[in-house]
Amino acid sequence: VLDDIIRRLTEVRLARPGKQVQLSEAEIKQLCTASRDIFLQQPNLLELEAPIKICGTFIHI
């Protein structure tokens, strides 16, 4: 089911601008739950060697 949702979302990128994808509430919840699980598996601390450059905008820090 997730593969189908992802396929539908990526296919719309190849279509005309403004095309929408209809997802049910259950599909959105399933996608959010799967995404959350993936993010929770990722380390929240990275050990990096110096020197490093950080580029970007830091807002509300």
Automatic annotation (TrEMBL):
Protein known as: protein-serine/threonine phosphatase
Keywords from the UniProt entry: Hydrolase, Manganese, Metal-binding
Limits of the Serine-threonine protein phosphatase N-terminal domain: 2-49
Gene3D superfamilies with a match to the protein in the record: 3.60.21.10
Domain of life of the native organism: Eukaryota
Cofactor(s) demanded: Mn(2+)
Catalytic activity, EC: 3.1.3.16
Single GO MF annotation: metal ion binding
Signal peptide: none
Enzyme class per UniProt: hydrolase
Coiled-coil region list: none
